[in-house]
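During the no-cost extension, the postdoctoral fellow (Dr. R.K.) reprocessed legacy sequence entries with the updated structure-token encoder. One reprocessed record is reproduced below for audit purposes.
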Amino acid sequence: MSAVEKPAEDLAALVEKTAETVAGSLGKAKTAIGAVIFGQEEVIERVLVTIISGGHGLLVGVPGLAKTKLVETLGTVLGLDARRVQFTPDLMPSDIIGTEILDETASGKRAFRFVKGPVFAQLLMADEINRASPRTQSALLQAMQEYHVTVAGERHDLPRPFHVLATQNPIEQEGTYPLPEAQLDRFLMQIDVNYPDRDAERKMLIGTTGIDEAKAKNALQAEDLLAAQRLVRRLPVGDKVVEAILDIVRSARPGEKGIGEKLAWGPGPRASQSLMLATRARALIDGRLAPSVDDVAALAEPILKHRMALTFAARADGDTINSVIAKLIERLG
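Re-encoded structure tokens follow.
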């Protein structure tokens, strides 16, 4: 064995040992969230995958499905400083990122002081983000991508980790401003929050209307989360998984024969990057050291659906984004 091979083996052993510890911690976090949020196991998994991947999530669901409660619970369980902003048409960019105020000392000297807005949190909930004006929505763009904001020409770094979980109501669209494609692409995945099944709703009914309501318990600290995010980027990915990611993303673009002819626009390279990180994160949460093609199939829909649009002809034929992605997944075998 050469001197070059030995460190590689030692590194692989270290990654494996660290992965086992991190996977155990993430399993505890998932259980802790599930003790408070009933009947949304898939949503919980996808939100955790989003955060462990270092990305932002868009939660879409009708009112009353515990989206706000989920974000509050995540803040407690993951040990993050969580804040919530209710987006409204009169919300200004300064209400999110902060503003400068003029201070005057006892001696009469004046100077501007920056007052941080709610974006300076580790976990920010942007509630009903599509109700704010495009100008206010765009205030999050720099923060979500660059992890800093600029006010009066001065840069202000955001805390790490930093994640945005935005919500949208898919029913009431009057008075809303649909997110532009550039901002949608900043979200690692779109997570649909559906109604719970009967058994889960029964459990919820009993568990949330009594004297003792379940409380979220801390399972991780911010430092643990950062360590998990670093580990995700070190997990090995097989060639078969890489090719599956490339196949499904590239097939979801206009111009490709077959399904591509139904699309007005499709996912860019950021979708491939998101899918690569998300499959690793899902494997780690499940206690596996490498992702599989099954992970690609499981995460393709939430990662691609908000990065695609059908042509008018495809919509007229009854096609939907979900049905198109389902056909792409079938091709993976």
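DSSP finds 14 helices and eleven strands in the chain. The chain has a mean pLDDT of 85. The remaining legacy entries will be reprocessed before the final report is submitted.
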